[in-house]
Amino acid sequence: MLCCQFCMWCNPKKSMKKKFLKRFLPKIIRSYQPLTLSEVFQKGLSRKDIYEIMDDFYYQHLPWQFVEHRKYFSKNSRGFGEDAFHSMWYLLFSEFKPVNCLEIGVYRGQVLTLWGLLTKHLNYRCDIGCISPFSSAGDSVSKYIDTVNYLDDTLVNHQYFNLETPEICVEFSTSEKAKLFISQKKWDLIYIDGSHDYDIVCQDFESSLNNLAPNGIIVMDDSSLYFDYPPKEGTFAGHPGPSRVAKEIAQNKLNMLGGVGHNNIFQKI
Ligand SMILES: C[S@@+](CC[C@H](N)C(=O)[O-])C[C@H]1O[C@@H](n2cnc3c(N)ncnc32)[C@H](O)[C@@H]1O
Question: Which residue in 1, 47, 137, 213 is a FRET match for 265, CA 20 to 30 A apart?
């Protein structure tokens, strides 16, 4: 039958279609295997729905070794983060295949080892670098265990997952040595997750932007306070410092691809 103007389905005033799409589209998308990360962001879904998709992806589609990896870092306070972020990183690496990757702010190596495993799984070579003091210094908002040597533990965790050691710069991101380290190459991916103070996150963002490759990606952690994201129970939207930088600076200087929970993803076009 041809489309008509009068039935409940086609008449926009009666809007059954709109209601149907609003209610069931996220569920329909979730039940299918893999869209790309960009496709998920382009569906026009709410951040809450995107988060649900990532959460479902973790349980339904994420290859088992990444679930095991997440479980390992969830034990004994080895890492922060949420299951949905493992899905985000999986989809991001699958789609963009970044080669030169930098993490600013390392705890015990959860993200570094995840990146290493992802590139092994995707069968391409990636150069991974990081900048961190490898101590709880410089972070006034997170809780850390003081009995662990973070640098040693990060190295042990790389051995545990049978991964090469990344290039490590044991510094605060704002030091001269760290700035030199960032400027040694153009990065395809930079993950900003160090200090949560506004002034320092501003500096991290600026030096990341200056050393980002064409089409390069910046992921900002803890930065969704000022986006429309009501956090699910057990999750949180971020801290004021990174959230202000994401909303007021990153969003204007880069193309915002989208956000998963308190992570926001920007691309240089
Ligand atoms: C929330 S943790 C990072 C978690 C990390 N994404 C992971 O799982 O490995 C933040 C880390 O950033 C470090 N940090 C604080 N200020 C920093 C700065 N200015 N530059 C680099 N790292 C910094 C802290 O020592 C802390 O270990």
Answer: 137
pLDDT surpasses 80 at 24: no
Q: Which residues line ligand 1 (CB under 6 A)?
A: 79-80, 104-107, 109-111, 131-133, 135-139, 142, 172-174, 193-195, 200
Instruction: Report the separation in Å between the CA atom of 239 and the middle of ligand 1, taken as the mean of its atom positions.
Output: 14
7 Cα–ligand 1 center, Å:
57
| Residue extents of the structural domains in the chain | 41-267
Residue 115 CA, ligand 1 centroid: distance in Å: 17
pLDDT tens per residue across span 64-85: 999 999 999 999 889 999 999 9
Helices (H), 4-78: 16-31, 37-42, 47-60, 64-74
Ligand 1 atom, smallest distance to 134 CA: 25
The one-letter amino acid at 257: L
Question: Burial of 234 by CB count in 10 Å (0-12 exposed, 13-18 middle, 19+ buried)?
Answer: exposed
Which of 132, 146, 169 to mutate for ligand 1's pocket (most ligand atoms within 8 Å of CB)?
132
Cα–Cα distance, 16 to 85 (Å, whole number): 34
DSSP 3-state percent helix, strand, coil across the chain (nearest 5): 45, 15, 40
What pTM, to 2 d.p., does this model score? 0.88
* Cα 132 to averaged position of ligand 1 atoms, centre (Å): 6
| Assigned fold of 41-267 | Rossmann fold (3.40.50)
